[in-house]
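Appendix C. Worked example: DUF2911 family protein
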Amino acid sequence: MKYKILIILLVVAISGCKNEGKNNSEIGTEHNHTQSEPKSENKKSLSPHTSEMAMIGDAHIHIDYSSPGVRNRIIFGGLLAYDQVWQAGAHMATWLETNKDLEIDGKVLKAGKYGFFVIPNKEEWTVIFNRNWKQHGKDNYAENDDVLRFKVTPKISEDIKEHLEYKLKKTTENSGTISMSWEKVTIEFPFKVK
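Step 2, the predicted output written as structure tokens:
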């Protein structure tokens, strides 16, 4: 009788181990599946989110943008049509924030946060600061929300700048330049801290 009970317990234990092994392999499969999902999330973005910041005089200036790549495309006059508003980055509109008033093109940009837009053209670009800084692309862009507009002449290079890049450069104690470069084009304009 002891042997029969022992054999039954042994059979139950072995079949329990086999079922547990199946469950573990099923769990392992599910676990591997969930592990592979973050890999796709961690895949390098084609337009990485980045920013540029600088202290110029008493002004802390911050530019926030997503940086698209050229990827063998014609950008200006191709992917981006001339004479149309562009959010000057990818995804969400690019924005600039300053804690001090800035003088740009003889006009005052009050301390605050602004959407940064441009209208590209072969001959000259229109630079726009718009009070609606939080919008997807240019979906909610409205010209009557513009607080400052001015023209700049683009500089054309033979070299290609693969990813869109903004630069803040200090030129004197209370002044600097803001530049945007992508593909073969750079625009740049000076500002003074008020």
